[in-house]
Write a structure and sequence with these properties.
With 223 residues, this protein is an alpha/beta fold. It has one domain (4-218): Alpha-Beta Complex (Spore Coat Polysaccharide Biosynthesis Protein SpsA, Chain A), CATH 3.90.550.10. The chain has helices at residues 17-26, 43-48, 64-77, 97-105, 124-141, 157-162, 172-183, 198-202, 209-222, and strands spanning 4-10, 32-37, 54-58, 82-85, 110-114, 153-156, 187-191. Helix 1 links the parallel strand 1 and strand 2. The chain is globular and about 45 Å long.
Length: 223
């Protein structure tokens, strides 16, 4: 039986993190690893209230990519066969984890959740930003994918062992695309639903056009 670890990087998610973790457990995934990325609120403390969840903490905010990398190292210690990454703001549906795991079990090294195959709920500016991100990811890293910035992904044991990244913030997601190409990893894209809420769209640390330009600049530097 596959050991599945669900990894949730979180930053200032005190109002939603408990429900996110309960939803993951209710979907049948008890092995959950949260990495609190230096939150200024009660995210760390609230996550600890959910029984069985392992909660790690950065004492300063280092960025989403750094939180994922810390979590990946933790998943290795837990001897995970599959690592599933999900955002901590409740946008992703834990019921879709099962399909991702099946795709890994069928021989894929990386499953990329893609919002661009299911655009009904996506704000127009998000669609435009994602298309720009996909183009620059292809131009810099040499591999075209439908949603280069999605945080809902699954990785096999092989992928976890060989993917090496240098950046710590949103550009991490694009670096993974480079590593897929560099190591010849077998990947597949899977349509996902995303629940855009007033909460998720009002977060101060969300990906914005300005942050997107910063991400692009760092992508060029890291290549």
């Amino acid at each position: 039986m596959l050991k599945i670890v669900v990894l949730v990087p979180a930053y200032n998610e005190e109002t939603v993190i408990v429900q996110v973790l309960r939803d993951i457990k209710a979907a049948g995934y008890p092995d959950i690893l949260v990495v609190d990325d230096g939150s200024a609120d009660q995210t760390y403390e609230n996550a600890q209230h959910v029984a069985g969840v392992i909660v790690l903490r950065h004492f300063i905010n280092r960025g989403k990519g750094a939180a994922v990398k810390t979590g990946i190292e933790g998943a290795k210690i837990l001897d995970a066969d599959v690592v599933v990454t999900m955002d901590g703001d409740g946008q992703h549906d834990p019921q879709e984890i099962a399909k991702m795991v099946r795709l890994v079990a069928d021989g894929h090294d990386v499953v990329l959740g893609t919002r661009m195959m299911n655009r009904e709920t996506m704000p127009p500016w998000k669609i435009l930003a994602n298309q720009a991100g996909n183009f620059f990811t292809w131009m810099i890293h040499g591999l075209w994918v439908t949603d280069s910035q999605s945080g809902f992904r699954a990785y096999s044991r092989k992928a976890v062992a060989c993917i090496e990244t240098r950046t710590d913030r949103y550009e991490y997601d694009s670096e993974v695309i480079r590593e897929i190409r560099r190591h010849g990893l077998k990947y597949v894209e899977m349509p996902i639903t995303v629940r855009y809420t007033q909460y998720s769209q009002s977060k101060a640390d969300r990906q914005t056009p300005v942050n997107g330009l910063k991400t692009l600049f760092k992508m060029f530097l890291s290549n």
